[in-house]
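Sequence, please.
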């Protein structure tokens, strides 16, 4: 059997030359205005969230902002975003459910972060960011289905 290759090698990385291939490069982008280039596509009426200068910004935020992407219940998604500035607190990617909320890892440093998150069975179509006394900026949010398909053998 051929050796396993690293999952981060390329968009079409072979997980095993005999069993599967990552096909995430074929998955459509689900986020509208993930680059925050305009003040559109996001509901940021709660708290102090604002879109300006090409980023999503907030000060001492303990609330959330969100957008609807359609129901993605029980699907594993690749979530990528960049924290471009942070001077206090932390921020988490948030998945809204009818009776639950799923939060990604709390981020309190500048960087680009990738998370693989299975959306809950009660996902109501909304995603967003949740602050924990967060003062900072976010950019380049991307959400795509993470899919692996078997190779023909």
């Amino acid at each position: 059997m051929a050796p396993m290759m690293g999952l981060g090698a390329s968009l079409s990385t072979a997980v095993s030359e005999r069993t599967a291939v990552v096909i995430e490069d074929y998955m459509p982008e689900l986020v509208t205005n993930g680059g925050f280039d305009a003040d559109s596509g996001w509901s940021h009426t709660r708290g102090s969230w604002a879109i300006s200068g090409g980023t999503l910004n907030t000060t001492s935020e303990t609330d959330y902002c969100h957008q609807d992407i359609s129901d993605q219940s029980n699907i594993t998604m690749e979530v990528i975003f960049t924290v471009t500035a942070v001077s206090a607190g932390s921020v988490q990617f948030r998945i809204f459910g009818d009776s639950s909320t799923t939060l990604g890892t709390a981020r309190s440093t500048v960087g680009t972060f990738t998370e693989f998150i299975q959306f809950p069975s009660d996902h109501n179509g909304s995603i967003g960011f949740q602050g924990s006394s967060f003062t900072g900026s976010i950019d380049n949010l991307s959400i795509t289905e993470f899919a692996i398909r078997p190779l023909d053998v």
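The chain is about 0% helix and 50% strand.
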